[in-house]
Specification:
Distance between the termini: 29 Å
Shape: globular
Strand content: 25-35%
Strand order of the largest sheet: 4-8-7-6-5
Structural class: alpha+beta
CATH class of the largest domain: Alpha Beta
Number of helices: 6
CATH topology of the largest domain: Ribosomal Protein L22, Chain A
Length: 231
């Protein structure tokens, strides 16, 4: 799908999302944020500012205006009370999504350039069974970078998981099962059993999209954690 609406087509109507392929500027300066990125390289500063413009515009649709979004001690975004949210950025793209905790418990989005992962990273990111699945999918649908899609799905899972548990999750502690035709995926947390069970996060379901064949455009993935128990 071309255009600026990658996540709009994936997320439920209760989630407000703002996306941009250009650098955005706030009309107001947020000193707390500027101090946080004061020593960062210019590219990182641009990413940080632009994705937060997207986040503030999304928050405005929920009735929250003019809020500084400074990361906490674990570098996670701090959202207003009663809000869940997620941000993502890659080369030429920024997006933020927010929702009320009255509608969903958790939210994760991720965007990646649509290109295969470097071969030397596969054993760090993909489980053996995921690598076998990628091989099978490549033989049937070679136009999609399935290994990069799994990486993105795991990023979305982590962004939904961490605010609810405050626990890190390694790439190899989560198994992704892709549905190529339904553009969906199933995530199984294979470690931290007691934490996952306590927060009803042993299984999560998400959706994905590819703008074009591998080497063109972006991949997008998202996870929403419903209020009811995940089946």
């Amino acid at each position: 799908m071309k255009g600026n609406d990658i996540f709009a087509s994936l997320l439920p109507s209760s989630v407000y999302v703002v996306q941009s392929r250009t650098e955005l500027e706030d009309t107001e300066s947020y000193g707390e944020e500027e101090r946080y990125i004061a020593n960062a390289v210019p590219e990182r500063q641009h990413e940080f500012r632009t994705v937060r413009v997207c986040a503030r515009r999304a928050l405005g649709q929920l009735g929250h205006a003019g809020i500084a979004l400074v990361p906490d001690e674990k570098r996670a975004p701090v959202w207003p009370a009663g809000v869940v949210g997620s941000m993502t950025h890659c080369v030429g793209f920024r997006a933020a999504a927010v929702a009320s905790t009255n509608d969903i418990r958790g939210l994760g989005i991720d965007a990646e350039l649509h290109a295969s992962l470097p071969a030397e990273t596969l054993d760090i990111i993909l489980l053996p069974e995921e690598q076998r699945m990628v091989g099978e999918l490549n033989s049937r649908y070679p136009e999609t970078a399935w290994d990069r899609l799994i990486f993105s799905a795991k990023e979305s899972v982590f962004k939904a998981w961490f605010p609810l548990t405050r626990q890190w999750l390694d790439f190899l502690e989560c198994r992704i099962i892709l549905d190529a035709q339904a553009h969906s995926f199933h995530a199984e947390i294979q470690a931290k059993g007691s934490v996952a069970a306590e927060h009803d996060l042993t299984v999560m379901n998400g959706r994905w999209i590819a703008e074009g064949p591998s080497g063109q455009g972006l991949l997008g993935t998202c996870i929403t954690v419903p209020l009811a128990a995940v089946c």
